[in-house]
Amino acid sequence: MLIHPQPDPIAFAIGPVQIHWYGLMYVVAFALFLILGRVRIRQPHIAAQGWKTDDLDDMLFYGMLGVIVGGRLGEVLFYQPAYFLENPLEIFMVWRGGMSFHGGFLGVLIAMALWARKRKRNLLDVYDFIAPMVPLGYAAGRLGNFINAELPGRLADPSLPWAMLWPGVEGLRHPSPLYQMLLDGIVVFLILWPYARKQRPRLAVGAMFTLLYGCARFTTEYFRVPDWETTVLGMPITSGQVLSLPMIVAALAMLAWAYRQPNGRPAHA
């Protein structure tokens, strides 16, 4: 049995300004994007498409807006619409946590579409380029959830060595944010990064990320207390699973399309 360490959510303060661990995890995520992006640009098949380090900085700005705006709106619309309708000012309190990956995912896609239009890039190439840089940033965000004692897991068997006493929740729990950090983030990265190191058909890398994340998230949802739950064909399904199923279906369709293209991936389009 473990006990949640309940660290102070404030990492440090500079005068009246308080820096929260949750916010720092976003800084870590964006830094990882830049570091991995510089490594990716040196890969021969990526360099052949004309990607430059200048693209990363500009893309990161758009991506940050997409993550923050989309992630927060996703939390509001997908998970807690009634609560935020009663407490609208809390929509802007992102430092307290409460960011939806699925909302952030859609936000980033919109932001990248705007960036691609500005730079006259094919959006599918942009998606392929950034996809392998996402999972570790996601893992950092889930670590932030754990530090904040958010997203408690379902009741765990007391014999489980890592069953955890969770603040404000009765019984021993699965540490679900750590499961999601490991499976949805780190394991997805360890599979996707080697796959993306080789030349693939256009959209294959982005589709593979979508498939891996969708399957991983569908699995880890079994260990997390759902925000809401419904029943499909007599089987319970959580909010996260409802949102992940379209990702899995779309990813399979995208992979099929990608590998059926006769001409592979042109350098530009």
Mean of residue pLDDT? 90
Helix share of residues?
Answer: 55-70%
Measured between the Cα atoms of the first and last residue, the distance is 55 Å
Low-confidence spans: pLDDT under 50, at least 5 residues? Answer: none
What's the Cα radius of gyration?
19 Å
Number of strands: 7
Relative strand content:
5-15%
Class by helix and strand content?
mainly alpha
Topology pattern, helix = H, strand = E:
EEEHHHHHHHEEHHEEH
The best one-word shape is globular
Largest sheet: 3 strands, mixed
Family: Belongs to the Lgt family.
Pathway: Protein modification; lipoprotein biosynthesis (diacylglyceryl transfer)
Binding site for a 1,2-diacyl-sn-glycero-3-phospho-(1'-sn-glycerol): 142
Subcellular location: Cell membrane
Explain briefly what this protein structure is.
With 269 residues, the chain is mainly alpha-helical. The chain has helices at residues 21-41, 44-47, 53-79, 81-86, 101-119, 123-130, 135-147, 176-196, 204-220, 239-260; strands at 2-3, 10-14, 17-20, 164-165, 172-173, 229-232, 235-238. It contains ten helices and seven strands.
Protein described:
- The chain is mainly alpha-helical.
- Helix content is 59%, strand content 9%.
- The protein has ten helices and seven strands.
- The chain has helices spanning 21-41, 44-47, 53-79, 81-86, 101-119, 123-130, 135-147, 176-196, 204-220, 239-260; strands spanning 2-3, 10-14, 17-20, 164-165, 172-173, 229-232, 235-238.
- The strands form three sheets. The chain has a three-stranded mixed sheet, with no helix packed on it. Strands 2-3 form a two-stranded antiparallel ribbon.
- Strand 2 (10-14) and strand 3 (17-20) form a beta hairpin.
- The protein starts with a strand and ends in a 9-residue tail after the last helix.
